[in-house]
Structure formats: structure tokens, C-alpha cells
């Protein structure tokens, strides 16, 4: 599996990807999932990939060295939307070539991409390209995309990132998002590739490969866990009290059962518990 995230804010773009491609008891392997297409002073495009490694590498190789030199490439696309279409076309070309053969071995055509960057004086843009070759663009309401094992790292991004978030804070949020994913999923692993693109720089100036020897990432890992436990301990424990407002309380035989109260509102038991209390025979098979 993998986890990649791309974020587009007012100050620029942030890209982060892990490198684990397989995780087993005695077989762990890694490969880079970030590709950079750069012409300093003219354009910078970054591609993140997730899914079947053979498929994502086939698409990346096709983009780096097109079979037809007359076709548009990421190095001569006139805007980012055209660049996203070029990636989509490459995905469709690989699908046309390989999908039927994969299906004979019951292998799904599974790949997805995040493409972001800036061309000339145009604004930086961010896209997600799906396995069908179609794509969507990020918005100011949702200025980021995730591919791969995304669920563990999503909550922190949703709570923190806005278009106005400073670029260094976006990078920090991406690393915390990745740390949460590493903590919960063995199929995502170090080292990490982090690229921070400053708007209008038109060159790669901030890139890092982070592993277990990275002091900053180890600080993120340690501090985030400590602060979460600290904040958790500071939140008041629930207060229990008897309440006359419990639904269907009139049918209960024991009216003195305490209820969890948050503020002035009772929190009733689960529907299954309520059913068992109001109709004991309902749970019998």
C-alpha cells in the first residue's frame, strides 16, 4: 500500500509520499512514488502515484519518454489542466495495453495519481487523476488530495489546513498526517519524500528525504504523541447522573439506572440495549 498527500495553498504546494511497496513478515520493499518534471524558470510539475507499482511505473515512464514524440508532454503542456489530461491519456494507454492481460490473472487495474505544479506565470494548481484517466481539481474548500491509505491522516488535515495556512505549517501538517498513518498501518513506511514548492519560484528549492535518522521527523513523532496524550488527559471525564428524560423510561423496571450526561442532555444506551430492556424476548433466537 502507500500514502501520498498533495496540498495547494496560497503560498504554494506541498507533496509528501512514503516509499513502502510491500510489507510482510520477511519481505519489505520500497520504491519512490514521487516524480518531478522540472524546467527551472519555466515550470515545475510533481506527480505522486499509488496503486499497482507496475502500473504506476509504466505510466510514469510513458510520461518521461512518450512513445509518440509528436504528442504533448508534461514539458510542453500550456497549462496544468492540459498536463492533467496528458497524465490521464497515459493512464488510458497503459490500460489499453495491459488491462486485459491483468484481468486474465484476476488482477485489477488499480492506480491513481496526484499532479500539481506551476507553469509560467499561471497560478499553481493541484489535480487527482483516477484509474479511468479522468481527473478533478482541488478547490479552496478542499485544497488537498490523498491517495492510498488515506483515512488515518485525514482528520488532522481537515482540522488544520485552509488556503491561508503558511507553507511551512502545511508541510508540518503533512508530516503529522503521515506520522498518524505510519502509526496505524504497517503497509506505509519510511523513508518519506517531502517537496515544498514556493509559488512563482519555478524551481525545486525545498526537498527532503526523511528516514529514521531525521531529527525533525522523530521530533514530530515524539511530540505529537505526547501532546495528544496531554490534551486527552485535560478533557473532563463524563459525569453520570440519573435523568427522568431517558426515552421510554416509563417501561423500565429499574428507574434508578444512572445515565451519561453531557451538559443537560442525557445520552441513552444503544438501540440494542434499549430493545433488550423494553422487550426481553426480542433478543432471543
From TrEMBL:
Annotated spans, Disordered: 239-285
Name this protein carries in UniProt: Proteasome-type protease
InterPro entries for the chain: Ntn_hydrolases_N, UCP009120_prtse
Polar residues: bias regions: 271-285
CDD domains (UniProt xref): proteasome_beta_bacterial (cd03765)
Amino acid at each position: 500500500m502507500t500514502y501520498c498527500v498533495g496540498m495547494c495553498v496560497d503560498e504554494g504546494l506541498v507533496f509528501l509520499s512514503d516509499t513502502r511497496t510491500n510489507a510482510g513478515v520477511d519481505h519489505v520493499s520500497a520504491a519512490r512514488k514521487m516524480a518531478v518534471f522540472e524546467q527551472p524558470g519555466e515550470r515545475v510539475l510533481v506527480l505522486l502515484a499509488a496503486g499497482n507499482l507496475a502500473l504506476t511505473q509504466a505510466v510514469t515512464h510513458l510520461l518521461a519518454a512518450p512513445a509518440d514524440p509528436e504528442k504533448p508532454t508534461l514539458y510542453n503542456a500550456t497549462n496544468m489542466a492540459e498536463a492533467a489530461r496528458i497524465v490521464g491519456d497515459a493512464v488510458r494507454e497503459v490500460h489499453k495495453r495491459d488491462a486485459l492481460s491483468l484481468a486474465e490473472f484476476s488482477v485489477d487495474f488499480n492506480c491513481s495519481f496526484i499532479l500539481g505544479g506551476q507553469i509560467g506565470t499561471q497560478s499553481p494548481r493541484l489535480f487527482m487523476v483516477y484509474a479511468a484517466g479522468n481527473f478533478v481539481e482541488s478547490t479552496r474548500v478542499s485544497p488537498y488530495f490523498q491517495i492510498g491509505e488515506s483515512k488515518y491522516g485525514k482528520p488532522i488535515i481537515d482540522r488544520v489546513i485552509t488556503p491561508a495556512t503558511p507553507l511551512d505549517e502545511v508541510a508540518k501538517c503533512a508530516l503529522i498526517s503521515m506520522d498518524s498513518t505510519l502509526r496505524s498501518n504497517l503497509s506505509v513506511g519510511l523513508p518519506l519524500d517531502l517537496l515544498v514548492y514556493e509559488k512563482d519560484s519555478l524551481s525545486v528549492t525545498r526537498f527532503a528525504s526523511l528516514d529514521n535518522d531525521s531529527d525533525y521527523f522523530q521530533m514530530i513523532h515524539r511530540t505529537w504523541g505526547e501532546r495528544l496524550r496531554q490534551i486527552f488527559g485535560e478533557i473532563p471525564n463524563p459525569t453520570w447522573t440519573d435523568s427522568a428524560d431517558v426515552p421510554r423510561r416509563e417501561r423500565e423496571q429499574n428507574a434508578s439506572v444512572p445515565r451519561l450526561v453531557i451538559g443537560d442532555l442525557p445520552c441513552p444506551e444503544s438501540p440494542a440495549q434499549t430493545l433488550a430492556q423494553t422487550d426481553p424476548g426480542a433478543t432471543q433466537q
